[in-house]
C-alpha cells in the first residue's frame, strides 16, 4: 500500500506534543480512522484537520480524549443547526421576508 497520502501518527504526535495513545483513543472511539502498515500507524491526510481540532480541544479546554466523542457530537449538531438557520434565512429572503 502506498503511503503517499498518509501521515505517520508518531510524527504528528511529536509535532503536537501528544502521546500516540491519544490518537489510538480517538480511533477506538471512531473519531478518526488510522491505518497500520508494517506495524506503523498512519492517519490519512484528509483527516488531519479533524485530528488537529481534537488536539486543540484537548490542549485548550483540557477535555479528556475519552470525552471528545461527546464534544464532537455536540459540535456536529451545532453545525447542522447553523446550516438549517442559514437555509431558512435564505428562504425568507427569497419569499420577501
| Class derived from helix and strand content | alpha+beta
With helices defined by DSSP (H or I, 4 residues minimum), what is the helix count? 4
Find the count of extended strands (DSSP E, 2+ residues).
3
List the domain count as a whole number: 1
Q: What's the overall geometry?
A: elongated
Separation of the first and last Cα atoms: 55 Å
Q: For the report, how would you describe the main beta sheet?
A: 3 strands, antiparallel
CATH fold-level label = Multidrug-efflux Transporter Regulator, Chain: A, Domain 2
Describe what this molecule looks like in 3D:
There is one protein chain. By secondary structure, this protein is an alpha+beta fold. It has a single domain, classed as Multidrug-efflux Transporter Regulator, Chain: A, Domain 2, CATH 1.10.1660. It starts with 5 loop residues before the first strand and ends with a helix. The protein contains 4 helices and 3 strands, in the order βααββαα. The mean pLDDT is about 95. Strands 1-3-2 form a 3-stranded antiparallel sheet.
Amino acid at each position: 500500500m502506498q503511503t503517499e497520502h498518509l501521515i505517520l501518527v508518531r510524527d504528528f504526535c511529536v509535532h503536537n506534543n501528544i502521546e500516540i495513545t491519544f490518537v489510538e483513543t480517538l480511533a477506538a472511539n471512531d473519531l478518526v480512522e488510522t491505518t497500520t502498515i508494517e506495524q506503523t500507524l498512519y492517519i490519512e491526510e484528509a483527516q488531519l484537520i479533524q485530528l488537529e481540532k481534537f488536539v486543540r480541544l484537548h490542549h485548550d479546554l483540557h477535555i479528556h480524549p475519552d470525552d471528545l466523542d461527546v464534544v464532537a457530537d455536540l459540535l456536529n449538531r451545532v453545525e447542522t443547526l447553523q446550516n438549517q438557520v442559514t437555509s431558512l434565512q435564505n428562504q425568507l429572503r427569497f419569499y420577501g421576508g
